[in-house]
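Supplementary material to the annual report.
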Amino acid sequence: MPVNTRDKILNAAESLFAQQGFHPTTLRQITRSAGVNLAAVNYHFGAKQALIHAVFRRRLDALNAARLEQLSSIEREHDNPSLEAVLNAFVEPALAFSQGGDAEAQRFMQLLLRAFADRDVVLHQALSHDYAHIMQRFARAIASALPAADPKRLRHQIDFIVGALTLTMAESALNETRVIAAELVQFAAAGLRGCGINQSSTRTHSTKEATA
Amino acid sequence: MPVNTRDKILNAAESLFAQQGFHPTTLRQITRSAGVNLAAVNYHFGAKQALIHAVFRRRLDALNAARLEQLSSIEREHDNPSLEAVLNAFVEPALAFSQGGDAEAQRFMQLLLRAFADRDVVLHQALSHDYAHIMQRFARAIASALPAADPKRLRHQIDFIVGALTLTMAESALNETRVIAAELVQFAAAGLRGCGINQSSTRTHSTKEATA
DNA sequence: TAGCATTTAAAACGCTTGTTTCAATCGAGC
DNA sequence: GCTCGATTGAAACAAGCGTTTTAAATGCTA
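Predicted assembly:
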């Protein structure tokens, strides 16, 4: 229950943006849902675009902080954390980062999916700037759990995981998210390990068949 | 080079929708880019919403047809096609389905990503209806290449692959798409195989660590 | 060539959008 | 209690939207 107008607007906007997208959602919808005056948006944020960015930054900062905290935690406990543990530190906070239950988590995943889809240049830059830090951190942790991995390929593979995480979590039924997240961790770990052939040398057999 | 107005509109709309999204793209932009009159859209398609669906159906039908054709082709050649070959029949047509080069393929992937993000009910139903058919077909092919797989988990895993494919292809640089697609096939194959433990029995070790 | 359906053209309609304006209200600090 | 900055309220603004309308042009068929 937010008390100040600013938070009321942010919450209403986040919910509506996730449901309808940024552009279709009107300021009048937002202010009506928040129970505040229309002009309050332009007063507190200046413009609709700025509101969009504010909504994003608030959640993204919390999510990435939770991820880093969890990663640091497992690194403190084990000298060489398993690949699954590292991946879980990336996936799990996306589900529970705001202790708001699965519904809120899914709502945020829908929001994140929109950020990928809408190629808003400013938003995209802000996003990748925020992500650059955490991605580098996780890439290092994964590489350390997977010493033989090729760095460039690893970057692509992390993109695969982000894509699978974002899209599936945004789409899947609410009561399934945790099961699916656990399956994704296993799936990603196996994919990264590549059944032991993750290095630059690719299997001639499969490649030949695949491109035939 | 389309000759009739209908195709000119469809092409212009597809391009603009991919770049900007459905809602922000105006009919005036579309008709200006297509070099036709504004009223032509409402004449040929009735309304903007119908135009969106038309743009989608045209491409999606072609893509799924290409996928099924490639799958049938490899099933004709081998009695038991490899997992990689099946996955490639799913991934590769997304890149080359319209022989339009990588740029066009990426544009379509952006469009597909928007379809996932925008939870337009009608569009979503049409999409999942189209997908239900092909998904079932590929799920069967994968299951046959991976006899020990758990059906329900397999469905989730296919979602992972679709997510990774859609999001990475839409985001990645143009000259990298083919490399990334090949890597995705390998990644997905390894993930599905789960290093040989894809059945219902999960590895106690990793699960414990992952949820710690 | 005449007639008819199809297609394009240009303008206008009604409506909603984000944004601005300006007065009213609130809440501390002196 | 009064003042002054911060905040809210209600109304209005210009612009752009999807859609409709009416008329002219075009392409077939006979």
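Chain B is about 75% helix and 0% strand.
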